[in-house]
Design brief:
single chain, mainly alpha, F1FO ATP Synthase, 0% strand
């Protein structure tokens, strides 16, 4: 295998790795959808508690979104450092 083919293989494997890492964003997306669904159902059942439910929902969304951001950071490190 010559140098050009090895470089092309390395770039292809790097792109594959980045794509696999970004699969980690699927979980937080599903989690946020379920979280908002539960919060909206809770608000529909008890509108007086909407402030507390909304505060906890936003906090949960932030924690779930952090996982997707970590996946993005790892993907960028793979893409630009290695």
């Amino acid at each position: 295998m010559d140098a050009a083919a090895a470089a092309a293989l390395a770039e292809g494997l790097k792109a594959l790795g980045v794509g696999l890492v970004m699969i980690g964003a699927i979980g937080p997306g599903i989690g946020i959808g379920l979280l908002v669904n539960g919060a909206l159902q809770g608000i529909a059942r008890n509108p007086d508690a909407s402030g507390d439910i909304q505060t906890n929902m936003i906090l949960g969304i932030a924690f779930a979104e952090a996982i997707a951001i970590y996946a993005l950071v790892v993907a960028l490190i793979i893409l630009f450092v290695f």
